[in-house]
Amino acid sequence: MRTLTHLHFRTPIPYNTASRLQEHLVSRFLAHKRSPTAIPAPPPSIITAEFHPVYTSGRRDVGAVSATQQAYLRASGRASFVEALRGGQTTFHGPGQLVAYPILDLRAHKLTPRSYVCLLEKALIATCKRYGIEAMTTENTGVWTTPDDKIAAVGVHMRRNVTSHGVGLNVSTDLWWFERIVACGLEGKRTTSFEREGVKGVGVDEVGRVFVEEVVGRLEGVEGWVRRDAEEVMEELGIGEGEGDACTTLWLEESTTPRGGDSELHLYESLPG
């Protein structure tokens, strides 16, 4: 049995800060897979964070968002715009939105990609229920409070069964930001949050703890978790902070690295929007 490590960023950060930590943790799993006798298997981890306000476009929108449109999104002076190397279209991330990145080896927990996504969705639904919010899955990906109101999303990347990226859950997000775009290309759908559903005064930090608890309770081979300050861990590991933000959208692809290395699985759904 393993103990999961919960790495939490206490204040909003640039996307790239969480990304650098995520990449480091993934690299440790891949190093173990290359040399299993020489390098011990790292423990499973979940990174939780809030991002600075940012609009990001995915691969379907790269080059398609004009300079005029970018200027419109930046007009408030409070949000940046980033072309991200992800699937999907344009969406928003910002304070009040919980982003959680589980970093683990699916095989160690007897999971398939599909069962893993199902586990995350169930953990999100259970997290919402702990606050009196009835949530569900629909024919569209993500977690919804009604067929037209999306409260959370799942977006994961897998390489050699090692997961990265994860979920986005709107807690107290200012939903005005989403009104400036057709978030993630979902025409006619709305974005909701804990606050819009009537649950006020709840912090992302608290919801992050609940979500981690719900995930741990569903992971085979894991008994309990410990919480650490993510910034302190980055300092200990000598990982520098970065700038920029990004999100994910639904796409499924099997590919091979240019050097003929590891196959990768991308199972992406856009973060809340």
Automatic annotation (TrEMBL):
CDD domains: LipB
Pfam families: LplA-B_cat
Domain annotation BPL/LPL catalytic: ranges: 40-223
UniProt EC number: 2.3.1.181
One GO term of the biological process aspect: protein lipoylation
Keywords: Acyltransferase, Transferase
Pathway: Protein modification; protein lipoylation via endogenous pathway; protein N(6)-(lipoyl)lysine from octanoyl-[acyl-carrier-protein]: step 1/2
GO MF term list: lipoyl(octanoyl) transferase activity
This protein's record includes keyword Transferase: yes
Family that this chain belongs to: Belongs to the LipB family.
Name of the protein described by the UniProt record: lipoyl(octanoyl) transferase
Species: Westerdykella ornata
